[in-house]
Amino acid sequence: MPKLSFANLRNDLFGGLTAAIVALPLALAFGVASGAGPVAGLYGAICVGFFAALFGGTPSQISGPTGPMTVVAATVFTHYGSNPAQAFTVVMIAGLFQILFGYLKLGRYINLMPYPVISGFMNGIGCILIVLQLAPLLGYPTEGSVINAITVLPADFGDPNRLAVAVGVMAFAICVLTPKRIGRIVPPQILAIIACTAFVIYFPGAPVLGAIPSSLPTLYLPVFDFAELNRMLVLGAVIGGLGAIDSLLTSLVADNVTRNFHDSDRELTGQGIGNLVAGLFGGIPGAGATMRTLANIRAGGRTPLSGMFHAVVLLLVALGLGPLVAHIPHAALAGILLKVGIDVIDWRYLRRMHRAPRVDLVTMIIVLALTVFVDVITAVAAGMIVASLLFVKETADMQMESIRTISHADSEHLLTDEERILFRRCNGKALILHLSGLMSFGAANELVRRMSRVSDYEVLIIDLLDVPKVDGSAALALEEIMQAAARAERAVIVVGLNLHVARLLARMRILDLVHETQRVATRHEAVLRAVDIVEMRTAAAHAKPA
After folding, report:
1. Cα angle for residues 89, 90, 93 (degrees, 5° grid)
2. pTM for the full predicted model
3. SS3 103
4. How far apart are CA 248 and CA 266, in angstroms?
5. 403-543 has CATH 3.30.750.24 classification
6. How far apart are CA 78 and CA 463, in angstroms?
7. 75 or 135: which carries more pLDDT confidence?
8. Fewest CB atoms within 10 Å of the CB: 46, 61, 95, 482?
9. Residue 74 to residue 70: CA distance in whole angstroms
10. How far apart, in Å, are the Cα atoms of 468 and each of 212, 401, 505?
């Protein structure tokens, strides 16, 4: 469990309170959308929010039900509608899978995400936040998707609720214009909620949160039906994997805003414990929630105490304090989140995108578009694929540039003076294939293609002195080159095998093609061995009867 710090207590309390107010309507809505009911959404936010903060690895993260998790959870609760205990068992299984992911240290792979993907994701989240808040800002219900929100905007703008617009503009203005010296005492978000709530009490007419359901949680012990066990495990793995990705993406956004670094594996463990407890107490599954996390950070939350306090506030609401927040207007939350959406956009990258490499810009735009119009997981997956392919292409180009064939002593400065003298004695009948750097599948085909165009040699020296590592594809390419030389009755000498390369080639039985006496340690020794082979073959050819 991470060490808790009280150095930022006041800001953490304000951040947690702000996040709880933002989370409350979302938790209720996600609970209804999942089919488990609003109370299940509320207790999902409480359990995942508290325990993911307590045991997780992203100090400022707020966790709870999210859109992607709710979509998958709806499938579970629809299928097991007649047996809710079985549905909540699937939620517990998802938590166990996430704990396993943390134990296996799979979270570290999120750190391999390129910055253009992160930037596109953040810009997309910012755009989503802005677009989705326009409807409640005009006095209408929040739409479930960006496309739906854009579709209804003309009608909403044509007949706005003027009181709601006034409340939303007031909240946004308070968030933007509050002096920093006052913001250090009370976060602008809290000031906005207090002012806007007082406004609608005296001037009713703007939509408010309304009655909040209050009840104690129901304990659900795990229930296993062996006829359904395979399906339950698959659904649990899907929810666990989706929640892991969702949470770690939010962790990256939190890192980018706070300039801190999260612990991915601990975060997965914390999310797993949170979902395990949520299933036990009848809550729907959750993950790191970007909007709530950003609202917490903007209000000053920086430690796990903010996430824990956010869960405590929601618990108090569930136990009977709902009337205290019932009069908060939706438009006030919209105004606050509108400011959050503007802040989360990666302006630093956008300001210099005309100077950025074109491939990075294309990657960012692809991720941005898919985040807004499809979903976050698809966007990040596509971004990673595009970035990976571009990286492989650039790496392959560099690897291909490092492939050199040396057939004449005077044509290459790689050889020392002594080696050059020895190499001349081969009379052009020896060929050195020099490789350098990491050799991978990206250059394997080019390596074979290039060697297939060279045939005028009797001895092939494969120089691996500057190769720290090869992968399976490059190893098979070397095997193909050796086999082609063997079929043409050409000798092969391998020089510079380090431990890693030698182990892989031996395990794949590629070194069986090269006699032990032709595996040497230095280039000088390889050239000397080539001279001996060429001279022996020349002598043997002269000794043959005409």
Report:
1. 90
2. 0.67
3. helix
4. 11
5. yes
6. 63
7. 135
8. 482
9. 6
10. 63, 17, 13
Contact 60, 293 (CB under 8 A): yes
The 3 state secondary structure assigned to 123-167 is HHHHHHHHHHHHHHHCCCCCCCCHHHHHHHHHHHHHCCCHHHHHH
User: 546 pLDDT band (50/70/90 cuts)?
Assistant: low
Quick one: DSSP state of residue 66? -
CA distance 65 to 29: 10
pLDDT digits (tens, 9 = 90+) for 249-304: 889 888 888 888 888 999 999 999 999 999 999 999 999 988 789 889 988 888 99
Q: Is the pLDDT of residue 2 over 60?
A: no
Q: Which of 338, 339, 284 is nearest to 27 (CA)?
A: 284
Q: Where in the chain is the domain with CATH 3.30.750.24?
A: 403-543
Cα–Cα distance measured from residue 445 to residue 532, given in angstroms and rounded to the nearest whole number = 32
As a residue count, the chain comes to 546
Q: CA-CA distance, 407 to 347, in Å (whole number)?
A: 54
DSSP H or E run through 63: strand 63-64
- Which range has highest mean pLDDT (118-132, 210-224, 279-293)? 279-293
pLDDT of 467: 85
CB neighbour burial string for 472-490, b if at least 16 within 10 angstroms, e if fewer: eebbbbbbbbbebbeeeeb
Task: Please give the structure tokens belonging to residue 225.
Answer: 């039906």
CA distance readout (Å), 113 to 10, 35, 110, 295, 416:
34, 34, 6, 24, 43
63 in Cβ contact with 275 (< 8 Å):
no
Which residues neighbour 320 within 8 Å (Cβ) at sequence distance 6 or greater? 214
Helices 229-258, 115-137: inter-axial angle, 10-degree rounding: 90
Q: Who wins on pLDDT, 258 or 404?
A: 258
**76 neighbors 286 (Cβ within 8 angstroms):** no
Percentage above 90 pLDDT, the chain = 17
Q: Encode pLDDT of 90-116 as tens digits.
A: 999 999 999 999 999 888 776 677 888
